[in-house]
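During the second half of the funding period, the structural biology subgroup turned its attention to how the target accommodates small molecules. The most pressing case was beta-D-fucopyranose, which had performed well in the primary screen but for which no bound structure existed. We therefore specified the complex as follows and requested a full 3D prediction, including the ligand pose.
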Amino acid sequence: MRTTLFPEGFVWGVSTSAFQIEGATDRDGRGPSIWDAFAGGAYGDPACDHYLRHADDVRLMQDLGIAAYRFSVSWPRVLPEGHGRVNGPGLDFYDRLVDELLEAGIAPYATLYHWDLPQALQDGGGWTSRDTAHHFAVYARVVYDRIGDRVDTWFTFNEPWVAAFLGHASGVHAPGRRSASDAFVSAHHMLLAHGLGLEALRERGAARAGVVLNLSPVLTPAQLGDMSLDIPEEDAEAVARIDTLHNRQFLEPVLRGRYPAELLPLIEKAAGLGHIRDGDLDLIGRPIDLLGVNYYTPIAVQAQPSAPADPAFPGSEGVLFCSVPTAVTAMGWPIMPSGLSLVLRRLSEEYPETELMITENGADFEDVVTGDGIHDVDRISFVEEHLRALRTSIDEGARVRGYLLWSLLDCVEWADGYRRKFGIVHVDFTTQRRLPKDSALWYRDVIKRNGLGAERPKRPTLETVAARAGVSRATVSRVVNGEARVSPDVRAAVLRAVQELGYVPNAAARSLVTRRTDSVALVLSVPRHGGEALTSAVVQYVTSVLEGAGKRITLMLADTAESHRRIVRHVEARQVDGVVLVPPDGPDTLTERLTRTGVPVVLLGKPAIASLVPHVDVDNAGGARAATRHLLDRGRRRIGVICGPTDLVAVKDRLDGHLATLHEEGLRPMIALAGPDDGESGAAAARELLSGGQAPDAVFAVSDELAIGALRAAREMGLRVPEDLAVVGFGDIHAASCTTPPLTTVRVPAADQALALARLLLSRLDGRHTSPVVLPTRLVVRATT
Ligand code: FCB
């Protein structure tokens, strides 16, 4: 790894927001905000008690060498009723803070709205009322008049998408509304407030003003794995629509003074267009000096006929939001540094005149407080990888002037309260003691160097644990593996050392391997439900990805008890660094025996018994839901299901998805159990359903094989498909498109599963945080429905 320096004058800083850190919600005349009401006292006060400890926090930043601090001003602290009476002591607080920052050599960057609307304004309609935008402009003036002489960088809004859509459409944020109309209207009024606020700041003489947007690239699940792939034609519209709702809804008005043409019908359908008045967009589109970019994670979608709209994205009917086959933070947000480069490339291409600043980027990981600090290697890697991506984008011409890390302190993460840890400084919320994590010290070095050093942060290793506990490495590994022959005292000492050092046994399991072999076992259980196509995709893609990463693959067939024993022995003997396991159908002990070896294992399919072993699965329940919904949309009301053995997890999930959908509609299920997974038993189950008291007008089969049998039975009974009986299968095997008529079914991604498996194992071998990957399925509508 080489040293990577940033351009001279590049600004290094941190961001926070008022509600998340200040506390003191009813001190010195502050009025209530919508977040106080939403939190109902569960969080928000004392938060980080920053209102009283600001001087210490500024000193902390000074010690870290922070050059810019982006904070937000709490509107209800300044104007307790939102307008009218100004609260002097509230302004005094920001006045002191700014002086302290300047004294410490830190540039203050002020954000005027980071979501804490005065409750009094909410009572008058909040952001659904146009008046709120005008009140905002007055508030901007009041704040500027007090600290504008010393603050030269201003942001009107932080992430209006979140405030409008999570606050008013999905309701997971304050004020907790669930109305698509309110969300679009609020979004417009926030944009208008931005325009009016910008005008106010400019009139008063602000040196530099802009807005902060949360931007995410919108991609298909396959593109996330390989960005050189084109968007498949069938997904193009879904991708564009979500990009419009999430990104362009704000970029275009602010930077071009117009709404995207494709957005207007979506707004109109939900809210009409009456709230958008002549002249609004001219005001919203006045030039800004700086666009703040908050980047955390990409969005993955694909087209899915019959998918209902996601509540946070009104207008997203027919779009499926997918989980992403990659490592995630504790928050579950996929880690994808190249997503930052995509956002920046797009901005440079489409809005080349705009100056940019990364105003937020960071990660929530669980921290372990140890006797000698907090070794948050995952957070360091996250920031480091994003900085590398950023540096590349700057080389490519992106006009990025600085990077502000989210966040200085562990703080209130909105509706998640105190449990999220985004800080580079740990806060003990009982004592309010601050403790810089390793990431803070690392960031200090980055700032000092104006770039990244050649060294990678080191995780505590087995050796470190052994040294701390005063035992041998073998003993540590015995304890970590849960082996019995260790005395209770020694075990306690080792576990204490593990805890104190923040050694993560899971992520660091590879260090249990005393010698890297650079070999990986691909264990295939045969025969297996789910078909040859999947097995051969696994062999092909897992091999090519892992070989590409320099691993040798040992292919091992697990078909007999003896072969299971041989495989376990091989892994126990540390002949491999990791295992990709295609587990046997149904209950088995192979998975458990392999994971007990301590060598990283990743599984295909959700295990029957819940466990911590990372696995790749497909959204079986979601596919069954889409299939059943599709039949309902076609007017079918008597829907039978042909079900295979429910001790297979996938079959059980499919059945559950089907039953849940019927239940939502108040419909009664009709279940026929099939024997083996073939046409014969599918036909028998269909005959049973069709000759029952109430004959179905549709059949959903949990596999294509069973569905093909059902088609045959229907034909033999003289029923027309789909007129008399609609049929849907699951799997999209090759034969599904060759039946007469061709079968409607749910496609299960084979290559994507295989790629995700390989990537998951590489993440594990890298000692990265991993969690299960669930890939989307897709309804393929053909002539049987
Ligand atoms: C952003 C918010 C910020 C913080 C981070 C994690 O969306 O702007 O306040 O919650 O996410």
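Two results from this model are relevant to the next phase. The longest helix spans residues 180-204. The longest strand covers residues 107-113.
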